[in-house]
Write a structure and sequence with these properties.
Number of helices: 3
Number of strands: 2
Strand content: under 5%
Helix content: 55-70%
Radius of gyration: 21 Å
Oligomer: single chain
Length: about 130
């Protein structure tokens, strides 16, 4: 027979896991809605980005102001989690080189061979 205390701990752990999954999904979707453009990753990527962003955002907010407890399921926790997920998505785009590319000669409308200042523009996706 399972001990009543152990059963309570298992139920609490399952509840916390479901709260983090649901909250991570909402935070990941909010971060993807804020950042324009096509986003990498599917459902699992959005979920993981949201959970990671919640941990990072709430942790940084707790590090800055430790006077009160920040829970992920609160307005301040939602804002901090969305900011953390936004940062994760931004760095993922930068590091995967899907955000900017260097311009080639002639891309600025100038004649080839003319020395141009290098600028960055949004990378276009290829048709599948």
């Amino acid at each position: 027979m399972i001990d009543a205390g152990l059963l309570t701990v298992i139920e609490q752990a399952a509840h916390d896991l479901l709260v983090w999954v649901g909250f991570g999904t909402l935070v990941g979707l909010a971060a993807k809605a804020i950042m324009p453009g096509r986003d990498p990753g599917g459902t699992i990527g959005t979920l993981m980005m949201g959970i990671g962003g919640s941990v990072i955002g709430c942790g940084l907010l707790l590090l800055i102001d430790s006077s009160y407890r920040i829970t992920p399921v609160s307005p301040m926790g939602f804002v901090a989690g969305t900011a953390g997920a936004f940062i994760i998505l931004f760095f993922f785009r930068i590091l995967s080189n899907s955000y900017v590319v260097e311009a080639q000669d002639g891309a600025t409308g100038m004649a080839p061979g003319v020395s141009t200042v290098t600028y960055y523009r949004r990378k276009k996706r290829r048709a599948a």
